[in-house]
Structures
1.
Amino acid sequence: MKQNLTPAIIIFLLVALISCCFYTSHLLDKVARQLLSEVSALELLLNDKDWEGSLSLRDQLADLWEEHQKTWALILDHQELEKISDALVRLENRLRQQNHEEAEMELSSLGYLISHVPEKEKFTLQNFF
């Protein structure tokens, strides 16, 4: 009887593991899209040189990041999270200095870092094995 249950348990655990991988990938992608939407809106304000609006939206982006960072910390390498947090701080400084070129560079870097995370953690056979 025990021998008959062992393959079923292994299959169940494998299915559960794969399901968790897909759910995690979906969660990361969903949050990244939200963050990138804010980054795109911030880019429009920055192009208009609306410094107050840019700072306000950057603060909203930072709040959204703080909200989701705790969840991402359970899944991701902490260095990736620190890079995003650092980019947000640098972006704030560039916006306060009203330095358009450097703010654009920081915003671009932030967008890349955010979009890079779901791609890096995406469930593929190459990442699985």
2.
Amino acid sequence: MNEEIRSRFNDKRVHSNDTYIIRSRRARRKALRRLYRRAVVASVAVVLLVLCVWIATAKNGKAVGKTERVKLLTSVNVEEGDCIWTIAKQYYTEECGSMQDYVSEIKKTNNLYGDRILSGYSLLIPYYE
């Protein structure tokens, strides 16, 4: 009878241990899942934070490095002896590109097709300030 009780006890104990092992495996899996979820959430949060900082820096980086100049227009009355090139030389800055490009821009702004202008004309001249 003692042996029968021992075998039952041992069987239950083994069964109990198996259950314990299964429970511990389940607990480990559950803990690993939680850990994995936390790692994924933390990674996404870090990526979003880095992205926000990058965007904020990119917007402010332009203003910090150099000041932007604004393109404006002014009206100039053409006097006798003036040509587009002499007027362009007065208002030319590096932002305009090459002098030829600047003269072309003046022509486009005023709907001119050649270099000829007459005294008394009023030209719109783009310039940077």
3.
Amino acid sequence: MRKVLIAIDTSENSLKAVEYAAGIIGHSDVHVTLFHVFFKAPYGQIVRSGDLPHHDVSFDGSTGEFKRWLGTQLMAAERALEKGRRILADAGIQNENIEVKLSESKEGVARDILSELENGGHDTIVVGRRGASGIRRFLTGGTASKIINHARNCAVWVVE
């Protein structure tokens, strides 16, 4: 049985990647893992929104605000995973062949996805490309770019 890993975040682009993959692999004998890496900062180490440069957040020194922000991020991730699961099921993939994983970031999003790719024995990975500007992607390296450059022994689908 083929094993496909679909790495998603909470963006519309990642759900487009799920839809694209579902259109190609629907009704086939395939196992699909929807995988989301959840950022969870060590408690007490983040005190200002500036400490999270890649996240659109606004809080300054309030632990309560930070906890609320983390909670909303977790709920958004769970909603995105459920939407992705429904898209796959609607495309004809059997529920028992759909696995949903929400993982706390350990080494960074791209590295965590690559670890899941390798450890899960997946032969294909699907990622969406975010709308970051070309210069920003060049300077920081997007998750999709890192996966393209470091994934081995598998097919890599990058969905616009």
